[in-house]
Each structure stands twice: as C-alpha cells, then as structure tokens.
Amino acid sequence: MDKFATIESLKALCCAKEFGLLYLHILNRELSLKARQGNSRMRKHSDAEVACLAREVYTEWKTFIEKHLDRPSIEVQSDPKTESFRKNAQKLLSEALELEMDHLLVENIERETFHLCSRLINGPYRRTVRALVFTLKHRAEIRAQVKNGSLPVGTFVQTYKK
C-alpha cells in the first residue's frame, strides 16, 4: 500500500478505472443523461489524470450521442400473437387519427407505446392504447396537435401511459 500516499490518490485511481470502463461501454442516451456521465465536477477534478480521462469520456460520449441521435431503433419481428395485437392497436389508432393504417405517425405512436410498456403486450399496453384512442377520438385539439407535430409523439404517449 505504500504506492498510494493518501486515500485521495486511491480514490482518484478508482475513478480513473471507472472512467476507463465507461470509455469501453458508452451508455445509451437516456441512462447517461440520468447518470450525468458528463458531470463537470469530474472534468474539473484536482487530479489531472482523472480530469483528462473525464474530458475524454465526455467528448467521446457527446460525439457518440450526436452521431446516433437520429437513428431509429431496431425493430425485431415478434411472435404472431404479439404482431396481431400490435396491428390491431395500429388499426384503432389510425381510425382515431383519421389516417391510413400504414401512416408513419400511427406506426410511431404504436411503437412508442410498445417500447414504454417494456415491449410486452400486457395490461398496461392495452390500457395505454385504449387511453390514446379515446383521447384522439374525443379531443379534437389533441388530435390536431399530434397530427401537425406540435405535440411530440413521445410526450403524447407518456402523458396518457397507464
């Protein structure tokens, strides 16, 4: 232990190792924003090595997020029963929005709902779809906002998630 003069230098080494792991595994955008990976406190750390690593991780994270910001998530084919439920939800949403079933907006609303419900067709998914359909059918101002894009799909679905 004589290699580490103080507890502070041991902490700095641990922080540097943690940043090295983060450097290898860049978190997804939501997790990294919640964890505040780019926290300026670490970039202004008293140990120059820790601060340097923190700056490297932050710039790497920022460029990664900027490159992948507009990429759509990968959709995987589900079992026939799940696909049937999702198609039915799209049909109900398209009728409520007064759009074609294969319209991009309908697909985006259903996909966002599916992802928010942990990619499972369960009670919360069904209740959320019902709430969205009911809102779109009976509240013309919300329907207009969703159709013209002034109310983002993510916000809309999150607001009525059950």
TrEMBL record:
GO cellular component, one term: nucleus
Protein's GO biological process: DNA-templated transcription
Domain of life: Eukaryota
InterPro entries: TFIIS_cen_dom, TFIIS_cen_dom_sf
Record-annotated TFIIS central domain positions: 85-162
Name this protein carries in UniProt: Transcription elongation factor A N-terminal and central domain containing 2
